[in-house]
Amino acid sequence: MEEKEKEKAIEDLDYEVRARTGDDIQVPPRRWRELIRKFGPTFVIAGAIVGSGELIVTTILGAKVGFVMLWMIILSVLVKAIVQEQFGRFIISTDDSLMDMLDRIPGKILGASWAVWWGVLLMISILMAMAGIVGSIGLSVAGFFGTGSANLLGAIVAIIGILLILRGLYSDLEKIIITLVGVFSILTIFLSFFVLQATPYGYSASDILSGLTFSFPAGAWVVALSAFAVTGITANEIITYAYWVKGKGYAAWSGPRESEGFFDRARRWIRVMDTDLVLGATMIGITTIAFYILGASVLHRLGQVPSGFETVEILSRMYTETLGAWTRYLFMIAAFCILYSTYLVNTAGIARIIPDGLRKIGIIAMKTPKQRIFWRRVFLIAGPAVMFLLYFVIARPAWLIVVGGVIVGLSMPVACVIGIWLNRIMKRQDPELAQSPTLTSILWVCAAIIIAIQATGFVIGLL
């Protein structure tokens, strides 16, 4: 009896598995002290974003070309956020799940929209990249302690992660990720913007300005386009963002569409979501720039362009040689937080998207909140199990991350097309909540930039 009551309580708390009701209605706060408590979805996304892309690819780009391509890193963060906003806006308006939303895109394949199939396949590809992350978590733990089996430590830490989020509630994930994001952001910013200046690898304002001149050195196309693909918000973060917006409660707090004052409340909750997005994207941008600066200041000057996770060890060594061994521990803590938050957020996203897609395709039944919670928990365990299998069979973490990253990069233009189509649907069905003409124009411009850069990278890859 107690177990049934506990499950019912989880269903009541979980906005993702049930429809919104009049009892969920909340008036959006106006004071900053109250408003801060309603932030969260973009900071959860940050836990996934500031992972292998920032830690590895961004740092390697800085190591290869120096400061001159800082502009592309900034551009990568800015142009993708507007697509993310459109997905969240649609969820608040309709209270759809992600797959219900994607199924509105025309073009059916075996009973479901092609966009549904794309979402499921994208998450399956993420399993490859995450296999590399799982294999590398143990490396950061072993590096911190200076001993132990990296594989065993990685397995233990990954299993602990499953237990931490097994209830499936968004609120559990948010608390853990915001803590990890806070730790690695503070440490990375501290190391890059302050500690680094006290070493022989310090940089000047002119170095930063040189990176804002839109220079594009010869031979940097491949690594630059790779960095553009995997830094900032990527396609998988955009689609999982729909779940975090719904899980936080923005859609539920707006109330049912037929309730009095719905459109006014929904507009105000969209503004809250946008504020969360701007603050979160700013933090993501600053942290990403910090990693780029590490590569440009330290590795570029040393003439070292590392591959894979040796980047972490090399950078930590630069600090220990100039400031002492204590900085190595700080850097390893930051690296662990980055990798672990990426693992947790993507594991939670996979556990939502794949079963939700299989439901829409008609392979599994998820008609009740209890069934949705059950399948989410199944994939919270199955996802990491597949990651471990891929890692131990292939045993090449960097290669797994690169392959997964390529697929994610190619998916970003698809996310842009879907975002534009959702904008058209809202203009027709919910003009009161749709993006303004100005935001719509920005959406089109940003989508065009993303598609053009990704297409250029694809053509260059073929040549």
Query: Helices and strands: which structural class?
Result: mainly alpha
- Biggest sheet layout: 2 strands, antiparallel
Give the total of domains. Answer: 1
With helices defined by DSSP (H or I, 4 residues minimum), what is the helix count?
A: 19
Overall number of strands: 2
The helix fraction, in percent, is: over 70%
Unreliable segments of 5+ consecutive residues: none
Alpha-carbon Rg, integer = 22 Å
What does this structure look like?
By secondary structure, this protein is an all-alpha fold. The protein has a single domain, classed as Amino acid/polyamine transporter I (Up-down Bundle). The protein is 76% helix and 1% strand. It is built from 19 helices and two strands. Strands 1-2 form a two-stranded antiparallel sheet. A hairpin with a 2-residue loop joins strand 1 and strand 2. The N and C termini lie far apart (65 Å). 51% of the residues are buried. The mean pLDDT is 83.
Highlighted features:
1% strand; 2 strands; mainly alpha; Amino acid/polyamine transporter I
